[in-house]
Write a structure and sequence with these properties.
- By secondary structure, the protein is mainly alpha-helical.
- It contains five helices and no strands.
- Helix 1 runs antiparallel to helix 5 and helix 2 packs parallel to helix 5.
């Protein structure tokens, strides 16, 4: 497994665990109240710390274990994998943006729209990283 593939596994796992906790723990009973926005802000702090911390620790540990591999430039295969993953995430992102627009016009609460926006980005990012992992495993 290459250095970048390992980093992608850490990113995928970190995103899934951190935002899984976020969406399962969010106090949905206050989503229609103004304090629902503050709940989003407060819960994003530990999510951000977990993602940044796990990515930083994993990147440092992997770079220490294989410094030559960490310094390698991206080859054509990895560029193709990156492009295909980004392409796969584009469509869910666009659908999520349209969903956010409809939420605005249907007077969904600010916290509801914010959660929908976060979910849109998280799903698109999980699809992007997941597709890249698939292509790494497939050998593209």
């Amino acid at each position: 497994m290459s250095f970048r593939e390992k980093i992608h596994w850490v990113a995928f796992t970190s995103l899934a665990v951190a935002f899984g906790w976020y969406f399962l723990s969010y106090p949905w009973s206050i989503v229609d109240q103004p304090r629902g926005v503050w709940a989003v802000a407060g819960m994003l702090v530990p999510v951000t710390i977990v993602i940044i911390g796990s990515m930083s620790i994993a990147a440092a540990a992997l770079a220490i274990r294989a410094p030559k591999e960490a310094q390698l430039k991206e080859d054509e295969r990895e560029k193709t994998i990156h492009l295909r993953g980004t392409h796969a995430a584009y469509y869910p992102l666009v659908i999520g943006i349209w969903g956010n627009l409809f939420a605005i016009f249907h007077h969904i609460s600010a916290a509801g729209r914010l959660n929908l926006l976060i979910a849109t980005v998280v799903v698109a990012e999980l699809i992007r990283v997941g597709a890249q992992l698939y292509y790494y495993r497939r050998g593209y």
